[in-house]
Design a protein that fits this description.
Length: 345
Amino acid sequence: TNGPYSRGCPQLPAKLRQTKPQKGFETDIDHDFIATFPQQLVTDPEMEEYANPNNRDDQILSLISADGGLKVTLVTLRNLMNDLSLDQNLSPLATRALGSSFSCASMLASGMDGGQVFQMTMSTDGPLRGSCTIASSDGGLKGYVGNPTLGDSLTLPEAVGSGTLQIVKNHPSWPRPYNGISEVVSGLPAEDVAIYLARSEQRSCAIHSDVRMNGYLCTGAGGYLVEKLPGCDSGPAAVVEANLEKLGKEMGKEWFVDELCGGRDLVSVAKSCIGEGIDLKVLDSVSPRLKCDCSQERFVRSLTLLPKADIDEIVERGEPVEAKCEFCAKVYRLGPDEMVKEMEE
């Protein structure tokens, strides 16, 4: 999953080598400005093992405040999004859309029970034609957008349009999945997820995701989720709220992705989110990866569900049957003779 082209490898894939930087990209990151951020080095021995210098690796990091009242989850997904962009031939706008959704889903799936699955579907009327993202607690991610080659003439909210956001949580041991739904209001995944969490699950949190592109190359992707847990004192929560508001005003609305692109790792960024005076302890650190459960066996099983008349017609035509996975773009094929053999078995 962690492709070398997103880690400074001099030999980039042709698609990325031939891409011209977006206009103004060279001024997107103000390194002098980033230098004004409170640089908090990872000096706590308990934190050192979770440090990720220059965000070289993708990471999902979960922390909790010392008093147990606040949970902070952060994610960086630059490598994964570059891999996904190549696998699905995504346009920069489609990569931004999926990167934001992947960031939200991976943070909300963090801490779930093993085997539990989190699915986030945006059914919208914009030219992006909706999206679907599925995440698991072990860092597995997969997803797609309806129009992966959509051009960059639109903003992300314009591309998404209006519609509904549906959240599904499931586990093999549950009698039925949990379903929740809310309206897509802004067209920005993190903002619409925040609305859903407040209205449907009554969860008090601050969530943000962002993706920065240089042509087809993703240079930064990730997000943060700060959540008040039951019994949280109003004092620390108010401090964090004021601190995040201050960061947005003084550093700009893209301060988080600025920090990622500037080389600060998630441990340091978490301390920036929380502010002074609140100690944090690491709960978990997971390496996110693309994970699809499609297979030739599942493809064959799906064919067995077709009516016998349809199967006979396919065999008579003498043409191979083909299916493409929407999540990983892998193509499966089955010839007429193979299909007859599989049906007999």
